Structures are given as structure tokens and as C-alpha cells.
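Translate sequence into C-alpha cells.
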Amino acid sequence: MEKPKGMTYSRNAIYAVYKGDDFLVMGTQKECADALNVNPEFIHWMTTPTGKRRFESRVDKSKALTALVVDWESEGR
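Result follows.
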């Protein structure tokens, strides 16, 4: 999903986080990070080309976290 002009990944992106094929959490970068007890930057990193390559190279993907940007929200949430 392409980033709309004027929006940022840290404030406006809505992420869906999965462990293998199992859905874990959906929300902003901070909401997902809080729910998973990880650094907020890690949530965004999983959506980068490097993060996706790292996930794809895993032998057992069922134990690996991955994330997708599924939507964008305005500041008013």
C-alpha cells in the first residue's frame, strides 16, 4: 500500500501483525508494539524490503513475526 502524502508511518499507518499465518494484533505502530512488548520501530521494520526478505528466508515461518500496512488514518484517532 502506497503512503499518502503528508502521512507518516509512525503516526498514521495501521499495521496488521502476524506470527506465521496467525493474526496477532492490528493498530498503529505504537499500539502493536505495546501489545507485543517490542520496540515500535520493529513493527515498521517488518514491512520494509529487508524485513520481508528476512521473513521469507526463515525455514519455519510459523514462528516468525511479519507485518503489513493495511490502512492509513488521520491524526484524529
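Note: The mean pLDDT is 92.
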